[in-house]
Design a protein that fits this description.
The chain is mostly helical. The chain has four helices and no strands. 48% of the residues lie in helices and 0% in strands.
């Protein structure tokens, strides 16, 4: 049996079987935080037409770091590896190195 309200105009009468259940509409989720690579690419794109050498060097350094291709010596490479994979060790060694003071 069709349950139509005869007093409502025809355009307001809908088939209730096609209506979504209340609360079932999805809310868009918050945008994800950009990765280091995405951020570096965005900075590089913004500075593409720049004539500021220091800004361009910094953008290139950020891009290389995001790709894990920044030139470093062996000690710095080891420090970054430990910092990336073992942050507890890095925090423990920071006062010894004079960092964070």
């Amino acid at each position: 049996m069709d349950h139509q309200n005869l007093s409502a105009p025809a355009c307001a009468q809908t088939d209730s079987r096609r209506l979504p259940a209340s609360g079932s509409a999805r809310r868009p989720s918050a945008p994800a935080e950009p990765t280091d690579l995405q951020a570096a690419i965005r900075v590089a794109q913004q500075l593409l037409d720049s004539d500021q050498i220091l800004s361009l060097r910094e953008a290139l350094r950020l891009l290389l770091r995001a790709l894990d291709a920044e030139p470093t010596d062996d000690d710095e490479a080891a420090r970054r590896f430990v910092a990336r994979h073992y942050p507890e060790v890095t925090a423990f060694l920071a006062p010894e190195r004079g960092e964070g003071q």
